[in-house]
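Data card: per-record layout.
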Amino acid sequence: MKNDTLLAAIDLGSNSFRLEIGRLSHGQIHRVEYLKETVRQGNGLDSERLLSDEAMQRGWECLARFAERLSGFKKQQVRAVATQTLREARNRDTFLTRAQHLLGFPIEVISGREEARLIYQGVAHLLPQTDDRRLVIDIGGRSTELILGQGLDASVTESYRVGSVAWSMKYFRHGQLDEASFDRAEIAAKAILDEALSLVPRHAWDVAYGSSGTVGAVGDILSVAGWSQGIIDREGLAWLKRCMLRAQNTDKLRLEGLKEDRRAVIGGGVSVLMALFDLLDIEVLHVAEGALRHGVLFDKLDREDEHEDVRATTVRRLQKNFGVDVAQAERVRRVASALLSQLSLDVSDHDNLRFRRKLEWAAQLHEVGTLIAHSDYHKHGAYILDNSDATGFAVSELHRLSLLVLGHRGKLRKLNVDFDDEAFAMQLMCLRLSVILCHARRDPDDQSLQLSCSGTPDRQFTLVLPAAWARQYPQSAHLLSEEVQAWQKTTWTLELQTH
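The structure for this 499-residue chain is written out next.
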């Protein structure tokens, strides 16, 4: 990516939506603009895990304003991620469909562990490069992330369903601030966070950092009150709690440095922070500059380089963990990629590269389900991908891979997919043809095969074979003729021709 390129990251958090715009300069990203709006979408999630119309409307209106600022940005310059509230919301697709239309860019719902990884990237990139072993904490609106890492590498990434918005709604209703509410909130937080003791024990880290949200708000309050800039310690937390108890209610809480958008959720956030100090034996927490949105920007840079893309590493790890026949996977990958390169999709070079990578990852993982059982292994593989915390991947990306793995063999009508998606149809055709051509688990004679596609409205694929090819490879020819029949059950057709 060229120097001076503008990049944008959008963080759809449970409490706030944030837009960070930075300019790339020699591998570093320098802030150009930062916008934040308190949307409190997490407040609109009911007991049935449904987002209210009002919460969705607040989100849509915010994203429409962000879209105006991003006018002129290209797709490869922008990445938007959504966190815990949209992970939980059963009607998230309703929100996302309109949200993506208003914003003009895709929105990825990321897993808790992926959120934790990106938070660490954001924090680590804005810290001096030392050998310190770091604990990073991020208390969000509906989730708390805990990460262990050193340098730019995170070794432990965990996410827990406890946060400032959720805890304020549950334990500090109507804004009351009393000892009993704090006790209940801290005990409940410790009950959920208790397992972190074995994952991030005190002897495993040297320095603790806190990112964004609650930590930033508490750091601001303590700094104005006379504590060291960028430092939160036990004494400061105890003083802050006494101030809150004296106020009795958030409406009466008057503290310099407390921003209005934080007032309603400060009780829940502080109770979770105090629980973490006790559980993890933290004496001093340093307020970090980096956050999730910064991690998204730096990760976007890595994705531009196939060799740096963490998703490629994740695919190799999944292959190893599930005992995939790597030689066969590589064979299928090569043939599928070669077939796709013969097709023409009316998209940018960036999108063409994106489609090719995802096809190749699906090919590398198409047999990931065989460790469970060879029978219906494509179904097992799809389940594995749909339910994996796969580093670097968004939930939607994993689902698309799972559909390709599910559809790489067998009947196509079992797929609950939109065959109007021309890119997906091309990916699926290339993967299925590759699996057929590599059925003997040796390199096929595919150099003389020509695949073409006439898109909408014809929706026809044509595979041209040399006249002698079918006689030389009768089993492959038979499987290809069956493939012609399979596609007749969809809105696309496959025609075989010889020359």
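Known properties of this structure: Residues 113-292 form a domain with the Nucleotidyltransferase; domain 5 fold (CATH 3.30.420.150). The radius of gyration is 26 Å.

See the next section for split statistics.
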